[in-house]
Task: inverse folding
């Protein structure tokens, strides 16, 4: 294959098990399906692989209404019609190929170098989309119906597929992927992550912020628990406040709750418990 093994990136901390499944998926040339709650680093893993292995990253953000052909290519009939009517285009109106634009999968197939293809939130798509997409990824080619042309992949991409597990994926889909569940980081792993983002962070601030963060994640009936990115942004906010003291966190003074909780009921519940000093 030629690439060195993936061992993480400058801003991405991973455990040995995740590194192993990434590398074996690349060697077996199989898509890697990642599941886990939002904020566990599924999407950022693809960015880290691209950075670490110096590959271009192509991102397909899956939408619920998306058809597979949109991810492969689009035929711009409207532009062709306008060109034929007004006659001021440099394109050859008689050539349909002039009006074919590659979608994200098409771009990965046509790239002159190997890419990382991130297919983000596949669980938003219907079953037909999922299974047909894997047919294309297995065959490493697709047909452009309008021109009766087959587009083969110049290089097989490194394929990372993410799912927030909002609905089940089909058995054929699961059978054609390697799988890894990214669990939410425990406090020890979170301290490593924080250390990567804040190299000179005060130890007391880091320890108290992480302790407070996990206490807030444990609040019952919260719809959207704060994730790693919220913790990072919260620490940034604390650092930016000249009046903040790290010991305030353990004393129950938790400022900037709006950085952590993005839904009004969650925010109000956290605010009430904080005011009553009932988090610790």
Result:
């Amino acid at each position: 294959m030629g690439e060195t093994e993936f061992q993480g990136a400058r801003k991405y901390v991973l455990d040995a098990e995740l590194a192993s499944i990434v590398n074996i998926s690349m060697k077996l040339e199989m898509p890697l399906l990642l599941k886990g709650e939002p904020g566990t680093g599924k999407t950022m893993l693809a960015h880290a692989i691209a950075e670490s292995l110096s590959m271009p990253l192509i991102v397909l953000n899956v939408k619920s209404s998306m058809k597979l052909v949109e991810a492969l290519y689009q035929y711009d009939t409207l532009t062709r019609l306008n060109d034929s009517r007004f006659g001021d285009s440099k394109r050859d109106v008689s050539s349909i190929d002039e009006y074919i634009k590659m979608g994200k999968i098409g771009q990965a197939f046509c790239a002159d170098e190997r890419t990382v293809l991130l297919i983000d939130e596949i669980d938003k798509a219907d079953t037909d989309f999922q299974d047909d997409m894997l047919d294309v990824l297995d065959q490493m080619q697709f047909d452009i119906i309008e021109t009766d042309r087959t587009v083969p992949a110049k290089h097989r991409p490194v394929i990372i597929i993410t799912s927030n597990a909002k609905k089940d994926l089909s058995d054929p889909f699961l059978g054609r992927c390697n799988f890894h569940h990214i669990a939410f980081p425990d406090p020890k792993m979170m301290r490593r992550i924080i250390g990567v983002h804040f190299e000179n962070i005060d130890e007391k601030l880091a320890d108290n912020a992480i302790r407070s963060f996990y206490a807030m994640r444990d609040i019952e009936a919260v719809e959207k628990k704060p994730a790693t990115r919220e913790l990072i942004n919260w620490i940034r906010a604390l650092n930016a406040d000249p009046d903040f003291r790290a010991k305030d966190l353990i004393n129950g003074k938790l400022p900037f709750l709006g950085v952590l909780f993005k839904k009004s009921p969650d925010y109000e519940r956290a605010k009430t418990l904080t005011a009553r000093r009932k988090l610790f």
